[in-house]
Amino acid sequence: MSISVQSITKNYGQQKAVDQISFEVGKGEIVGFLGPNGAGKSTTMKILTGYLHPDGGKAKVSGIDVQENPLQTKKKIGYLPESNPLYFDMFVREYLHFMADIHQIVDPSKRVNDVIEQVGLTRESDKKISQLSKGYKQRVGLAAALIHNPEVLILDEPTTGLDPNQIIEIREVIKQLGKDKTILFSSHILQEVEAICDRVIIINKGKLIADSTVAELQSANSIPVIRVQFKESLEAQWIERSIKSLTGLDRISAQEWEITATDLPEAKKQLLELAVRENLNIISLQSGEQSLEDVFRTLTGKDFIV
């Protein structure tokens, strides 16, 4: 296994940040590491990269014990922390040459050129890092993590603060990298996880609560729902009075609702009767499964904080 975590525990005083977590990530997998803020994601990643020592358990990267051989494991890992520490007064190429020298890379100029092209920095490569947008600064951090061509990439919130276009661009870079590298990354953006990941690991209050594919997670935990959109705005009580088997009602917008009920076919019929009775126009009426975000909220008991 490229990553092996065995009963890892980490305490900060009286607080148990990570509590007996165990999981494995195989070569070539892209795995989303999810959890509410304070769940222990960053702590686990820092233990894997050797920046923190666990109070119990073991972590291995490419079969090497992180605690026993920290330098060897660091050679195997590319790490992009959430804070993305960069030297803003350095130029992009200068900074990447500096990182290449740290890793004692043979032919650093070629390697710098390769990673600049790989992460889409070519047009910005002669600028100072301070002059770059947030998205391009993230690309510089990613390039630095890749400079020594590691087997494993650990990315902590790689798209934090990016606009939608930048998120899509970084997502595509990660997908390309996943073809020949093992990637563990944390994110608060569920669409990103669904688009990229082979598997999802969820932790909450320091404990591992789910480890499966996105499809398996949704199948095991999701509830069938009806999504209905009216042309008109309406109050919740109209739906509550109309659907006899109603068990849940979420307002997506003034016109759009997500409904759970014990009898979905009958609930659909009652929605159509409501529309006829109140002279309402239904734009769409669909059955489906809850989203990954809904499943996350069910498992952790709280919303995402972006």
The level-1 CATH class of the largest domain: Alpha Beta
Number of strands: 14
Give the second-level CATH assignment, the architecture of the largest domain: 3-Layer(aba) Sandwich
Radius of gyration: 23 Å
Shape: elongated
Major sheet strand order: 6-7-8-3-9-10
Structural domains: how many: 2
Helix content: 25-40%
Number of distinct helices: 11
Question: For this structure, what is the CATH homologous superfamily of the largest domain?
Answer: P-loop containing nucleotide triphosphate hydrolases
- Structural class comes to alpha/beta
| Proportion of residues in extended strands | 25-35%
N-C termini distance: 31 Å
CATH topology of the largest domain: Rossmann fold
Give descriptors for this structure.
single chain; 306 residues; alpha/beta; Rossmann fold; Alpha-Beta Plaits; 2 domains; six-stranded mixed β-sheet; four-stranded antiparallel β-sheet; 11 helices; 14 strands; 36% helix; elongated
